[in-house]
Specification:
It is a single chain. The chain is built from 7 helices and 18 strands. The chain has helices at about 1-10, 15-25, 30-45, 65-70, 115-120, 125, 170-175; strands at about 85, 90-100, 105-110, 110-115, 135-140, 145-150, 155-160, 185-190, 195-200, 210, 215-220, 225-230, 235-240, 245-250, 250-255, 260-265, 275, 280-285. Helix content is about 20%, strand content about 30%. By secondary structure, the protein is of the alpha+beta class. Strands 2, 5, 7, 8, 9, 12, 13, 15 and 17 form a 9-stranded antiparallel β-sheet that branches. A 4-stranded antiparallel β-sheet has the order 6-14-10-11, with no helix packed on it. A 3-stranded antiparallel β-sheet has the order 1-18-16, with no helix packed on it.
Amino acid sequence: MFDKFFVLSQYIAPQRAISHLAGRLADDNRSPALKNRVVHWFIGHYGVDMSEAAEPDPEAYPSFNAFFTRALKPGIRPLAEGEKTLVSPVDGVISQLGQVTGDRMFQAKGQSFSLSELLGGNEKTAAPFAGGEFSTIYLSPKDYHRIHMPMAGTLREMIHIPGKLFSVNPVTAENVPNLFARNERVACLFDTDAGPMALVLVGAMIVGSVETRWAGVVAPGSKEVTATHYQREQAVTLAKGEEMGRFRLGSTVIMVMPRGAVTWNSDQVAGKTVRMGEAFGTLSRTQSPV
């Protein structure tokens, strides 16, 4: 009963107004005492491990968002070795992973979502990933919220897709159809040695913003789908493990690869906790270097 009420409340709540207010409060640095109380409560309530943070003192952060997007100590997330090893881009829990079936990707029991809608509604953009492999990773409030490259790549296109701001937790995923293709999101398309790769950063309720290294804050953004193309003179090339973006408050990352490009490791299954940099899959083919 509580789960049904929780989901229903999201349909009727002013999602964008709530998220905008949460973002403003999270960025506010005018009341250190209030910020410190909130941060200490958050650490205790969600079990945040501050021993991993580059700055372990919770009160040293100027705002809640600075704390939430905190850096980790150097070397605490070593990258799995191997030229063909694809690594986890984030800390989180695997929601689902598997094969794209037609234009559908599995979301949760009884639910799926559209690949082409996920990437902005352009069938040409989605075509290289038909029949490919995908993985959806959920970042809970306690997790590290920077996103890193699972393999080296050169940015080809970034697409901001406006949408709703439902929560992306497991309860909502099981009850809201087409969830990840309904929420506001930023799709980043890279050229890699294994072919194209999509990293989709999905917004959610009270996510203050989504940002990338090369463009800063991208979401919230325009009310229309906006695509930015990166030509050779604007090339953004990132190494495996390099930071590519971050969430201000938690959400979900969806990674999509073409058919035959990757085999997910057998120990990576739905429900498993992962850490950024750990071996996630094996690249099965290579093309010309990026």
